[in-house]
Q: What sequence folds into this?
């Protein structure tokens, strides 16, 4: 995949209101081309806001992690595809992935699967009724995602190299947990610098607080883009 360094940066708009998101997007200006909107902003007016971003020429990643019966997923994905979003997440259950691939048909929407939530460890999986380790389940779901025609995976930077070896070059790998050297880690435990994550094989980096909480968010975004460019 040939992408400009700037196209690879996705800024997470983890903000409580559309007004706060508008202020951040306007501060970041031309430095950021791609935004991620999750539950918090999505359920606080963020979906019409996302449509406005798309109309203004930005790319949008809707991190809604869908999972429901197939018909409901297909119809939901059709609606997201009509909005013109670029990425949408679903949980990596076979029925859900198949339904999502059907719903995006004919659009430019790309579906990203979440294999196993990074907050889960082996004990959490056992408590949920699974007789598999996190790494076994993540690998199995990654193969299923590829075989179902899913476009990409969301994964921690530490998983990128292994998942790339499982799914091959055709799938898009998107990684959060990115921290430029010297920035606060916050609640992220498995972190990597932008340059290292790209070198490991990530296609896109999701960055939230290191940009949103910087004294100068635009300069922080530009520095990350420079760091990505230095690794290509
Ligand atoms: O602020 P920070 O850079 O940690 O933000 C990372 C973004 O990526 C947040 O929106 C977070 O919800 C999301 N994310 C994550 N880890 C995952 C999946 C999504 O941090 N495994």
A:
């Amino acid at each position: 995949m040939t992408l400009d360094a700037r196209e690879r940066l996705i800024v997470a708009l983890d903000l409580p209101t559309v007004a706060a998101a508008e202020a951040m997007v306007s501060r970041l200006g031309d430095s950021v081309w791609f935004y991620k909107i999750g539950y918090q902003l999505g359920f606080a007016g963020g979906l019409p806001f996302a449509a406005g971003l798309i109309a203004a020429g930005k790319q949008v990643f809707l991190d809604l992690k869908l999972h429901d019966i197939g018909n409901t997923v297909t119809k939901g994905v059709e609606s997201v595809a009509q909005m013109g979003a670029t990425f949408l997440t679903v949980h990596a259950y076979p029925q859900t992935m198949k339904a999502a691939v059907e719903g995006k048909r004919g659009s430019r929407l790309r579906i990203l699967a979440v294999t196993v939530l990074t907050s889960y460890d082996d004990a959490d999986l056992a408590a949920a009724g699974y007789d598999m380790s996190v790494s076994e389940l993540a690998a199995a779901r990654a193969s299923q995602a590829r075989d179902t025609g899913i476009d990409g995976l969301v994964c921690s930077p530490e998983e990128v190299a292994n998942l790339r070896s499982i799914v091959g070059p055709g799938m898009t790998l998107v990684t959060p947990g990115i921290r430029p050297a010297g920035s606060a880690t916050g609640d992220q435990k498995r972190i990597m610098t932008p340059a290292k994550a790209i070198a490991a094989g990530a296609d896109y980096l999701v960055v939230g607080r290191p940009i949103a909480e910087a004294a100068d968010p635009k300069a922080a975004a530009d520095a990350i883009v420079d760091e990505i460019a230095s690794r290509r």
The CA atoms of residues 86 and 109 lie 5 Å apart. The beta strands are 9-12, 34-37, 59-66, 87-91, 110-114, 152-154, 172-175, 204-207. The longest strand covers residues 59-66. The domain at 5-230 is CATH 3.20.20.70 (TIM Barrel).
